[in-house]
Specification:
Keywords: Signal. With 411 residues, the protein is mainly α. Helices cover 67% and strands 1% of the residues. Helix 4 runs parallel beside helix 7, helix 4 packs across helix 10 and helix 13 runs antiparallel to helix 14. Bound molecules: 2-acetamido-2-deoxy-beta-D-glucopyranose (5 copies).
Amino acid sequence: MDRLGFVLFLVLGASTTSLVSAQQDWTKDMLDAMQQLLTGDTFEFDPIYLAKLYSCFDKIDPKLKEAQDLAWQGMVNYHDQNGQPGDEWGSCLGNGHCAVYFEQNATQQIFHNITIYEPCNYASNVPYYHVTTQICDHWDLWNVPADVRHALGTVFASLGFGSSFWHGSHTYAGNVADNRVIEVLAYVVHQASLQNLNVNSTVLMDLSMIKRPYSGVEIKAQLTDMFLEQSPEQWAETINSFDMPNYYKTFAGIVCTVFSVALENETADQIIDALIALFSFPPEEEMRALTATLNLTTEEKLVVQGNFESALIKLLYAFVWQEWAIGENPIIYDPAINEQGADLIPVINAFANSLNTFPIYDQDVQDGVNSYPGDEWCNDYSPHAKWHLQAANGLMDLVFLGDDLHKLLKA
Ligand SMILES: *[C@@H]1O[C@H](CO)[C@@H](O)[C@H](O)[C@H]1NC(C)=O
Ligand SMILES: *[C@@H]1O[C@H](CO)[C@@H](O)[C@H](O)[C@H]1NC(C)=O
Ligand SMILES: *[C@@H]1O[C@H](CO)[C@@H](O)[C@H](O)[C@H]1NC(C)=O
Ligand SMILES: *[C@@H]1O[C@H](CO)[C@@H](O)[C@H](O)[C@H]1NC(C)=O
Ligand SMILES: *[C@@H]1O[C@H](CO)[C@@H](O)[C@H](O)[C@H]1NC(C)=O
C-alpha cells in the first residue's frame, strides 16, 4: 500500500470507528436500566454476559444487533409518545386478548422514566437471550443447516425482546410481539425436524391443507426486517399478517413426529389418532406415511424418547406457572407455593437432564440463578417469571430435539 493509501485507510478506519461508537447502544441502555430497576444496583447489566451475547448476535446475523437496538429503541419511543391512539402505554390489560397476570407493580425505571408494569415478568425474559447464546455455544455441532440455526438464534432474541415489551408496556403492540413470536419459533423447529424427509406435503410441512406462502425461516427474516425498517406502530399489523399455524397445532405436529419416531406402531397409532381428534388435524394417513419411511434402531428410539421426556417435563413444569394455562387457580398465587416452586426448578431440571443426551451449556439458567436481574426474589414471587425462565429451559430442549429428528429423519 502506498503512503496516501495508508493515510486514507487510517482516516477511513478512524471515521468508521467513531461512527459506530456514536450510535447509541439501546440494548445495553435498556438492560442496564432493567438491572437498576430490579435490583436497586447502580451498576450495569452483567458486562461479561453482554459481550458474549453481542458476539453471538454477530455470529448469527450481522444485522441482528442493529435489529435488537432498533427494537429496544422502538419500545422507548413508543413509551415516550404514549403508544398510539387506541393503544396507549399501559392500556392493554384484561381487554381484548391482553391477559392479566398476578404481578401488577407499575414501577418507574430511571432511563426515560419508563413505567414498567410487571418488573419481574419483564426482566425474566433475559433467559430467552440465554437460549440464543446456547445456540452459539453449540455452533458447529448443529445438524440443522445454517439458515435454520440462524433463524433459531434470532427468534429467541426476538422473543426475549417481545415478551419484555409486552410485560413492561401493557400495550397491544407488545402483546402481539410476545405471543406470535413463540409461534414462529415452534414453526421453525417443526419444519426443521421434517426437512430431510423431502416430503412434498403441505399437511406435514405447513400443517395446512393449502401451501402457506412462507416457511418459518422466511418469516423469521421478515421479523428481523420489520425491526430494521418499521416503527412500533406498524409492528402488530406486520406480525399479525404472518401466515403460520397457531402454536397448539405446531406443538401437536412436533409431538406427532416424536411419537411416530420413538414409539412402536400400535402405540403411535393410538396416540396420534387421539391428537388428531383433539386438535382437528388434517388426515391421519399423511402422518402415518412418515412412520412407514423410517427404519430406526431401538437405541435410536430410546434416545428420542429420553430427549422428548426431558423437554416435556421442563415444559410441563413451565406451564404450571403460565397463569392463563390453568385459569384462575389460586394455588399458584400462594407465596409459600411460589417459593417451593422456585426451589424445585433446579431439581426438576436436573432430573430431566438425567434423561436426555443434550449438552448443558448454561447451568445457571437450568438452576435459575444469575439468569436475569432480580431472579433471586422474582423466582420466589412471580408465577409468570418462573414460566419465562422454565420455558427457556424447555424450549432449548425442544430445539435440541428438533435437531435430533432432523438428523434421524432421512428418507
Ligand atoms: C415492585 O418492583 C420494584 C422494582 O423492581 C421492587 O423494588 C418492589 O419490591 C416491587 N414491589 C412488590 C410489592 O413486589
Ligand atoms: C424523569 O422524571 C423526573 C422527575 O419527574 C424529571 O426531573 C426528569 O427530567 C425526567 N427524565 C426524563 C428523561 O424524562
Ligand atoms: C409438490 O406438489 C405440488 C402439488 O401437488 C406440485 O405442483 C409440485 O411440483 C411438487 N413439488 C415437488 C418438488 O415435487
Ligand atoms: C408400521 O406401520 C406402517 C404404516 O401403517 C407399516 O407400513 C409398517 O410396516 C409398520 N411397521 C411395523 C414394524 O409393523
Ligand atoms: C431397515 O433396516 C434393515 C436392517 O438394517 C434392512 O434390512 C431393511 O431393508 C431396512 N428397511 C427399509 C425400509 O429401509
